[in-house]
Design goal:
Blueprint (H helix, E strand, L loop, with lengths): L2 H23 L6 H8 L3 H7 L3 H24 L5 H21 L2 H9 L1 H7 L1 H20 L8 H21 L6 H19 L2
Length: 198
């Protein structure tokens, strides 16, 4: 086993240990000492990988968003009607982001308390996600299902709308029952069909 592989495994061990602790005890209660103990490594070793708890936390969030991106990318690769795809994509986005935030109460609290921190952690995800949305729109235009709109502007607008729905969705402001979620989905369908359908 090479040095870099061992180094990567140790780093991953610290991140997974921190993820567990954040879920169990909340972000504020976790210390670098606790992360080191949970991982079975020394605090000195931990500090060779991360200089502060905030760095570990940012890495945890970035990894969660990377997993989400992988799921969404696989979905976009499916063959289906472009309008149905963009609608299902929007719904999947909201459910998945809500799941990431709610994987523990502390992340939910941090998400609302320090949204700017979360925004910094998800910069790469947002760039990649806009590319996924562009792929769906390009497919729809190519197949004659969507109008020929300014692609870049439409992508940014749709992405901003999805992000704008995240907090109300997470907080349950649209309702938590299936019929409330379905009603929201129906409204989004009308708006997208009106704006995109040829």
């Amino acid at each position: 086993m090479g040095k870099s592989t061992l180094r990567e495994q140790t780093r991953e061990l610290f991140i997974s240990s921190a993820r567990e602790l954040f879920a169990e005890e909340g972000y504020q209660a976790v210390t670098m000492n606790r992360i080191a103990r949970r991982s079975g490594k020394s605090r000195r070793t931990l500090y060779t990988y991360f200089s502060a708890k905030e760095e570990v936390y940012m890495e945890v969030i970035q990894q969660e968003f990377q997993h989400l991106y992988n799921e969404l990318e696989a979905f976009v690769g499916r063959k289906m009607d472009p309008m149905e795809k963009i609608l299902q994509y929007a719904a999947r986005h909201e459910v998945a982001v809500s799941k990431i935030v709610k994987w523990n109460g502390s992340l939910e609290a941090e998400f609302f308390k320090d949204y700017a921190n979360v925004e910094r952690a998800r910069i790469r995800f947002d760039i990649l996600e806009r590319q996924l949305i562009a792929t769906i729109l390009e497919e729809g235009i190519r197949e004659g299902a969507f109008k020929k709109l300014n692609l870049k502007r439409t992508v940014y607008l749709l992405h901003a709308c999805m992000k704008g729905l995240e907090i109300p969705f997470i907080r349950g402001q649209f309702g938590r029952k299936d019929d409330a979620v379905q009603e929201t989905y129906n409204i989004v369908r009308i708006l997208l069909e009106e704006g995109l359908k040829k």
